[in-house]
């Protein structure tokens, strides 16, 4: 990575490809270009290496390779997951990613409100589940706020509903899906411990290539393909396998899993430092959701009355890159639905910054980044006063 | 300090306009006029990108930035006018209407209500004491589009680019490191690219295919997909096979017929007396019989003419003067005004 000069604080949007992943992928663009479905030895070798990569992905989440479908990105994985609802009802929350909300809206869906804490209430999910509900989808961690969702509690609610259905002889299935893209490399993504039946993991958020993701589902979960053709991925995702992408994904995910514990601690400390520097340096700045129930690398702040998009344009000229959920032109003038859902005022949402740290973040970067943000906020406040 | 609201479209011209005004010591606020945001078939409307570009430049200059939402008014006053005119078989100029109704009326009014003393735009034109004058850059001069602006509006308007050439403006943008310095020029009507007009109109107007008839032989030489799409003098898009090119010489909207001719000098195509209506004079009304110069379309050369009431007698006949289009009348550098061609 040659990003040392850049003060990049938007790892929730994109992570740079790791050297490990890049090295692993490289041969599959050149000498190992074969189609894994071809009958001769070198192609069969590529097929085996592809299967080994899927096994590696499975190990990282505590599942089996045969239960994994590799997709072109997390959005496709999520769309495929939604087919587990069959013709039934879906329950999801108002702070889910657009990939979930828009895919779910193609079904009969209930969207539960989320309180100011940014954390979905398992009891609200319980109340939203109907007798024809077949899928609940809640992200492991929110992509804007970084809040970690109580998947275990929701899994318990779902298990209780399943039991009730069994007791009354109702065979309607009920599955629990989670998009865990944001948590990878920071918190546990073991499917059994999370209590989920389907999980989406995105290579692009864990230092792997873009447009590669997986959907794991428990045996017995029936999915309907979105893409038809040669019958690859057990018929659930036709098309020649993305061998290089999958191998890079596996290398990146294994790497991220191995580094998780130490990295999580390191990021948490850096985030706390960033937060402390910003709060001390800025009178009107508030942490949107303080506390421990956040991803270690996530920090969301608001400076009501300041136009966050202006801050972003000021900061980019200093090589500092952060995100915002404001009604900025970049997202066609629509305020983030997540910030609106948890009840932020327009001024709070428009003055909000999302700062996310990652593998290449250092204390020196955090200090310089905080200083740049403090300066930018100060100059904006002064400009508005004048 | 004079407060100026400058219309910033996200292009290089209005970016330099804002920069110059800041340097000249004005209290500047950048304004993006959101006139249109709808995507068209096969064409993404670039408004969000343009807005972000404009805002980036404004932030870089350290000035206030606002968005004025004129979508409703733009639709009512510019787009509807354009559609209505096409339906009548005429060739309207929405840019002229946009300047008359939106930029130099609505924008001016809202700017003044919000504390501005003046407005500014990146048009290549000059103004002095309520008079509109041609730009220094003859090739970029945009006064053709501005002849319906009022004297009152001009008195409250600055055109900082009027004394520069386009090349100089680009150079100034580069020197200042403006984000938009190398941005490509946008083409045609602000919301429909030149090629998009047909697609755009088909969304709003029911069109019926009809015959293309050779005016000279009386023969049907082809079919068209709606007479409104054709403009007098037009050569392209007729798709009538080989041989000498055909030109549109007339349309019959009632019978949905497009008349063409291979004769470049077909009489219908040449006009030496132009009847105008909707005449607008900016700050002085020329006398009957005044010797003036006329421009029959943007960038067309100025041609000497004599004004006789609402009639303009050209020294030399001009080709393809189309009903609905504007003729702008000049006295040297001064834009007197102009009118819309009826015949």
Task: Describe, in plain words, how this protein is organized in 3D.
The complex is a heterodimer of chains A (386) and B (343). With 386 residues, chain A is α/β, with parallel strands linked by helices. Chain A has 12 helices and 12 strands. In chain A, strands 2-8-7-6-5-3-4 form a 7-stranded mixed beta sheet, with helices on both faces. In chain A, strands 9-10-12 form a 3-stranded antiparallel beta sheet. A two-stranded parallel sheet of chain A has the order 1-11. In chain A, helix 7 links the parallel strand 6 and strand 7 (198-202). The longest helix of chain A is centred in the last third of the chain and has 39 residues, at 243-281. Chain B folds into 3 domains: 3-184, 3-Layer(aba) Sandwich (Rossmann fold); 206-261, SH3 type barrels (Roll), CATH 2.30.30; 267-341, Translation factors (Elongation Factor Tu (Ef-tu), domain 3, Beta Barrel). Chain B has helices at residues 12-23, 47-61, 71-87, 94-113, 151-155, 166-175, 197-204, and strands at residues 3-7, 27-34, 64-69, 118-120, 126-128, 131-133, 157-158, 210-214, 220-224, 247-252, 257-261, 270-281, 291-295, 303-308, 311-319, 326-331, 334-341. A 6-stranded antiparallel β-barrel of chain B has the order 12-15-14-13-16-17. A 5-stranded parallel beta sheet of chain B has the order 3-2-1-4-7, sandwiched between helices. In chain B, strands 9-8-11-10 form a 4-stranded mixed beta sheet, with no helix packed on it. Chain B is globular and about 70 Å long.
């Amino acid at each position: 990575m040659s990003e040392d000069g850049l003060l990049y604080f938007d790892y929730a949007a994109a992570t740079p490809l790791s050297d490990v992943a890049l090295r692993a992928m490289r041969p599959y663009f050149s000498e190992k270009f074969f189609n894994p479905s071809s009958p001769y030895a070198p192609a069969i070798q590529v097929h085996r290496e592809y299967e080994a990569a899927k096994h590696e992905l499975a190990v990282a989440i505590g599942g089996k390779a045969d239960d994994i479908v590799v997709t072109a990105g997390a959005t496709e994985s999520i769309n495929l997951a939604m087919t587990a609802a069959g013709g039934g009802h879906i329950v999801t929350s108002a702070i889910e990613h657009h990939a979930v909300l828009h895919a779910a809206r193609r079904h009969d869906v209930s969207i539960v409100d989320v309180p100011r804490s940014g954390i979905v209430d398992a009891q609200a999910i319980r109340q939203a589940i109907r007798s024809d509900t077949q899928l609940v989808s809640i992200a492991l961690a929110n992509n804007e706020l970084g809040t970690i969702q109580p998947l275990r509690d929701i899994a318990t609610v779902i298990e209780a509903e399943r039991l009730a259905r069994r007791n009354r002889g109702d065979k309607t299935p009920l599955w629990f899906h989670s998009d865990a893209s944001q948590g990878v490399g920071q918190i546990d993504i073991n499917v059994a411990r999370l209590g989920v039946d389907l999980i989406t993991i995105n290579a692009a958020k864990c230092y792997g290539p873009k447009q590669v993701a997986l959907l794991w589902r428990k045996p017995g979960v029936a999915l309907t393909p979105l893409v038809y053709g040669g019958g690859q991925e057990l018929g659930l995702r036709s098309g020649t396998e993305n061998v290089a992408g999958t191998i890079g994904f596996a290398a990146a995910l294994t790497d991220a899993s191995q580094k998780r514990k130490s990295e999580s601690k390191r990021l948490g400390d850096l985030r706390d430092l960033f937060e402390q520097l910003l709060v001390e340096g800025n009178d009107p700045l508030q942490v949107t959701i303080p506390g421990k129930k956040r991803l270690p690398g996530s920090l969301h702040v608001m400076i009501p009355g300041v136009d966050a998009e202006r801050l972003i344009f000021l900061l980019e000229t200093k090589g500092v890159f952060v995100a915002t959920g404001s009604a900025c032109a970049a997202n066609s003038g629509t305020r983030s639905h997540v910030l609106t859902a948890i009840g932020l005022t327009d001024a709070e949402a428009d003055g909000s910054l999302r700062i996310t740290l990652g593998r290449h973040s250092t204390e020196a970067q955090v200090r310089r980044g905080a200083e740049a943000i403090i300066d930018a906020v100060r100059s904006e406040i002064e400009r508005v006063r004048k | 300090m004079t407060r100026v609201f400058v219309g910033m479209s996200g292009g290089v011209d209005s970016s330099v306009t804002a920069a110059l005004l800041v340097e000249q010591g004005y209290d500047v606020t950048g304004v993006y006029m959101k006139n249109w945001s709808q995507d068209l078939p096969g064409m993404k409307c670039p408004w969000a990108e343009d807005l972000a570009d404009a805002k980036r430049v404004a932030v870089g200059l350290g000035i206030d930035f606002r968005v004025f939402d004129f979508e409703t008014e733009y639709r009512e006053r510019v787009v509807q006018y354009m559609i209505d005119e096409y339906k009548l078989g005429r060739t309207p100029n929405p840019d002229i209407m946009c300047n008359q109704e939106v930029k130099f009326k609505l924008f001016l009014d809202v700017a003044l209500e919000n504390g501005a003393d003046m407005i500014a735009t990146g048009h290549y034109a000059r103004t002095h004491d309520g008079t509109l004058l041609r730009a220094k850059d003859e090739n970029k001069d945009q006064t053709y589009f501005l002849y319906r602006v009022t004297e009152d509006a001009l008195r409250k308007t600055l055109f900082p680019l009027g004394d520069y050439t386009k090349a100089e403006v680009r150079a100034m943008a580069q020197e200042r490191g403006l984000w938009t310095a190398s941005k490509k020029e946008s083409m045609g009507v602000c919301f429909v690219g030149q090629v998009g007009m047909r697609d755009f109109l088909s969304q709003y107007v029911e069109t019926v295919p009809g015959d293309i008839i050779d005016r000279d032989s009386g023969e049907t030489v082809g079919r068209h997909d709606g007479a409104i799409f054709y403009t007098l003098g037009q050569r392209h898009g007729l798709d009538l096979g080989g041989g000498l090119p055909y030109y549109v010489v007339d349309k019959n909207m009632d019978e949905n017929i497009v008349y063409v001719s291979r004769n470049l000098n077909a009489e219908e195509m040449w006009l030496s007396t132009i009847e105008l209506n909707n005449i607008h004079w900016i700050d002085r009304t020329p006398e009957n019989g005044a010797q003036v110069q006329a421009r029959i379309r943007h960038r067309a050369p100025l041609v000497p003419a004599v004004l006789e009431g609402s009639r303009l007698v050209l020294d030399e006949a001009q080709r393809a003067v189309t009903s609905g289009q504007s003729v702008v009348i000049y006295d040297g550098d001064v834009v007197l005004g102009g009118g819309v061609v009826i015949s």
